[in-house]
Structures are given as C-alpha cells and as structure tokens.
Amino acid sequence: MASQGRKGGISLPDKRSRSNNEQTSLISRISQSQLVSRGKQAASDAAFVSKKLLKSTGKAAWIAGTTFLVLVVPLIIEMDREQQMNELELQQASLLGTPAVAPLPQK
Fold first, then answer.
1. Is the pTM of this model over 0.85?
2. Beta-sheet strands, E only, within the chain
3. End-to-end CA distance of the chain
C-alpha cells in the first residue's frame, strides 16, 4: 500500500502542447471579443423583434378572420338568398303568363 497508483485507464499528460495551447488562447480571445458580443446582442435583438412581430401579426390575422366571419359571411348569404328569391319570382311570373317585371335597381 505504499504506492497508490491508478487502476486501469490511460493517464493524460499534465500539460498540453504549445501549439494546442496557442489555438485555445486564440479561440478564447475571439469568442470574448467585443465584435462577437455585439453580434450575439444583434442576433438576440433580431429574434426578439421577429417574435413580437409574428405574435402581433397572428393577433391581427385572428381579428380580421373573426370579423370577416361575423360581418361579411352573413351579408353574402343574405345577398345570395335575395338573388334566389328574385329569380324564383321571375320564374313564377313567366309560368303564370304575367308580364315579367324587371327588378328595381338597388341603391
């Protein structure tokens, strides 16, 4: 028990080679530079703005869609129903032999 060696595995060297250390130093300097931090901030700001824009666009689309369903669709249905009634009246008048009266122009 006098010597406590490691059991199994591979022992790694204590110090890295000089060229590997220089590369790590260069990478760390680049990643901590002001240009990189400004780029990260710009990307973060762009993501925030696009998220807000997408959310507000979705809300506007929801409002437009529901407004169309509530106001415009019933109007279209009623106009179609009115046109069908006019056509039916003209058809009945022609069958009964009465002179067909042209529908009055709507204002």
1. no
2. none
3. 109
Asked if residue 93 lies in contact with residue 101, where contact means CB atoms within 8 angstroms, the answer is: yes
Q: How far from the centroid of its chain's Cα atoms is residue 60's Cα?
A: 12
* Cα–Cα distance, 99 to 84 (Å, whole number): 19
Amino acid at 40: K
| Residue 42 structure tokens | 């710009």
Q: How far is CA 92 from the centre of its chain?
A: 53
Rounded Cα gap, residues 85 and 93, in angstroms: 12
pLDDT tens per residue, range 54-92: 999 999 999 999 999 999 999 999 999 999 999 999 999
Phi, psi of 33 (to 5 degrees): -75, 160
